[in-house]
Each structure stands twice: as structure tokens, then as C-alpha cells.
Design brief:
13 strands; Spore Coat Polysaccharide Biosynthesis Protein SpsA, Chain A; 2 domains; 5-stranded parallel sheet; Rossmann fold; 36% helix; alpha/beta; 8-stranded mixed sheet
């Protein structure tokens, strides 16, 4: 019999997900940790999704169904969080699959590490990698990051936590809030806000989620998930981080002198950050702002550098070069793209 206060609440919002919802729900029902409740939140579905959800309620009392009339995953997820009874809250999407031991492993981590507010895990990309190379590269990158220090240092590159692979303490959501709706990616904003507030986040080394890369995924189609939206929200929290951690505040040097890099870096100016110079790998490039050739950089502790280089190979080369000059990630420089 399910306890009145379950160990874990799984929040699973859905919208017109009749082709994937049943398998997602079944992956939760089959969890090795049986002490959970799963809140299914219908977000104005017009297909057979609600019927699928109702059929699960008839056979498994651990599942509940709620309805959210305001359109958007942020509203639906927040409703689930407000109604959650569990000690821990796990997120799940209607088009993904959780591994059988996911809830047990993550709950055990939070039980054993009381200083941590949230834990995620590794994910397995499911999709045509030849068609979705960018997504596949992101999965490889995000799976390479696991410790709290790595998550802190990489938070401004991209979201270092796959949202539907995560579990957190209910009191964290109550204290710092859940998803904010706006012209930005709601999951990225929430994790940046929590990290800025000092919430410790880590990952277990096990794969916990089959992450499906479907053509209709919101991160592909929604304007709030565009590059411009990501850079607007990351600039806000990056400026907050710099005010607390940059010894040369408000000045930073920006590695990346291309027009795109400069446009993205200039977003910091609206938050009180000043760009002292740009750094380039080409000597003599003409700009209307100070430019430093990379070989002329001073030794560490003379400036703070933000790198706005998106290509992974080039990013790694820059890190190797900076480390060779004594620069330390999170202390003397940060990756931003």
C-alpha cells in the first residue's frame, strides 16, 4: 500500500502525447523504488492522451491526474509541484523513458548527501544522429559533466543538467521557486537561479533516462529556446556571477572577436559589465574597440576572461592554452559559449 507521504513525487506534464505517453508512464510504473506518486498533468490535450492517463489511474493508485488550462510546460510542471506530497520531486517528460533504477538511485544519493539540493544523471540519446548531430553533440557534452564544480564552471556554456533526468528536494522548490514563464528557456532559467542561490547540484554516474530527440520537441520549435533567448537569460545570471567572483569587476576580457561573439558579449553591458578588450587569434584585426592578440595575454591574475567561442574543438584548444599560462577555470576565466 502506498504511504500517504511518498518518498518521491514524479511530475509528468503532457500535451497531445498519445503516441509516447503510455511508454513514459510505464517506465515510471516499473521503477524498482515503489514508494512514489506520479502526477500526470494534462495541458489542454485534444488527442487521446487523457484517455491513456485515465486508464493508468484505474490500475495503479500511485498515479494522479491534474489539468492545467494555462498553456505551457512551466505552468503544468508548477501545478504538479504545488500538489506534490513526496520528499523528493523528479521531473519526467511524456516522450522519454526512465531507466528502472532511476528513482532508487537518485533518492539514495539525496539521502546520503544532505548538502545537495538536486541530483541528475546521465542520459542516452535516442534519435537519428545523422539528422540531429547538434543534439547528439550536446548529449555527449552534458554527459561529460557530473560534479558540482564542473556544473558550476560549465553553467554558462549550455544547460549542464538534462531537466527530465533530475530530482530535487521539495524544500528547494518551495524556497527558490520552480519554473518562471517568459521569453526564455524555463528549465535553464530555473537551474541558473538555483545555482546562483547556492543550491548544490550533482549527477550520479549511471544512465537514468532515454532522451528522445523528436521533431516536435519544444527545444526545436519554441522561440523561447532560440539562441538569442538562451544568451539573454545566461547574460543576466553571468553578470550576477561576475559581480561576486570577478576580482576585476566590472571589467572582463572577451575571447572571441567575431561579429556574433561581440553581439552576444555586449548583452552583458545592460547588466553593468564592461568589456576591457577582445581577444583574437588573428593579429592586426581592425575593431573599434581594444583588441589583444592571444599570444600577448598576460599571465594569470591580471585579467578575467570570458570565452565566447562555440566550436568545441576550438574551445578545448583555448582551455589548454589558458591552463598553460596558469589560468584556472572559474577563477581566472569562464567558458560562455
Amino acid at each position: 500500500m502506498t504511504k500517504s507521504i511518498p518518498k518521491v513525487t514524479v511530475i509528468l506534464p503532457f500535451y497531445n502525447a498519445e503516441t509516447t505517453l503510455e511508454r513514459a508512464v510505464e517506465s515510471i510504473a516499473a521503477q524498482s523504488l515503489e514508494d512514489f506518486e506520479c502526477i500526470l498533468i494534462n495541458n489542454n490535450s485534444t488527442d487521446g492522451s487523457v484517455k491513456i492517463a485515465m486508464s493508468r489511474l484505474e490500475t495503479d493508485k500511485r498515479f494522479r491526474l491534474l489539468h492545467e488550462s494555462r498553456q505551457g510546460v512551466a505552468f503544468a510542471s508548477n501545478l504538479g509541484s504545488r500538489k506534490a506530497k513526496g520528499k523528493y520531486i523528479a521531473r519526467m517528460d511524456a516522450d522519454d523513458l526512465s531507466y528502472p533504477d532511476r528513482l532508487a538511485l537518485q533518492a539514495a544519493f539525496l539521502d546520503a548527501h544532505r548538502g545537495y539540493g538536486a541530483v541528475a544523471g546521465l542520459v542516452r540519446h535516442v534519435g537519428d544522429k545523422s539528422f540531429t548531430k547538434g543534439f547528439a553533440r550536446y548529449v555527449d557534452w552534458v554527459n561529460s559533466i557530473s560534479s558540482y564544480k564542473e556544473i558550476l564552471n560549465k553553467q554558462f556554456v549550455e544547460l549542464p543538467v538534462v531537466n527530465p533526468s533530475a530530482m530535487w528536494r521539495r524544500e528547494v522548490a518551495k524556497k527558490y521557486g520552480m519554473y518562471n514563464a517568459g521569453d526564455f528557456p524555463e528549465d535553464y532559467e530555473m537551474w541558473l537561479r538555483w545555482l546562483a542561490a547556492g543550491v548544490k547540484v550533482a549527477k550520479i554516474e549511471q544512465t537514468v533516462l532515454y532522451w528522445y530527440d523528436l521533431p516536435g520537441r519544444l527545444s526545436r520549435t519554441g522561440p523561447e529556446y532560440s539562441d538569442a533567448a538562451f544568451y539573454r537569460i545566461k547574460s543576466k545570471y553571468l553578470a550576477h556571477w561576475l559581480k561576486r567572483n570577478n576580482p576585476f569587476h566590472p571589467e572582463v576580457a572577451v575571447w572571441g572577436a567575431s561579429r556574433i561573439s561581440r553581439r552576444r558579449a555586449r548583452l552583458l553591458k545592460t547588466h553593468g559589465i564592461e568589456i576591457s578588450c577582445y581577444i583574437d587569434t588573428r593579429r592586426g584585426r581592425l575593431l573599434d574597440q581594444p583588441l589583444t592578440y592571444y599570444e600577448d595575454l598576460p599571465e594569470a591574475s591580471k585579467m578575467f576572461i570570458l570565452t565566447y567561442i562555440k566550436q568545441m574543438d576550438a574551445r578545448s584548444e583555448i582551455q589548454d592554452y589558458l591552463h598553460g599560462k596558469g589560468y584556472r577555470e572559474g577563477v581566472d576565466y569562464l567558458l560562455v559559449s
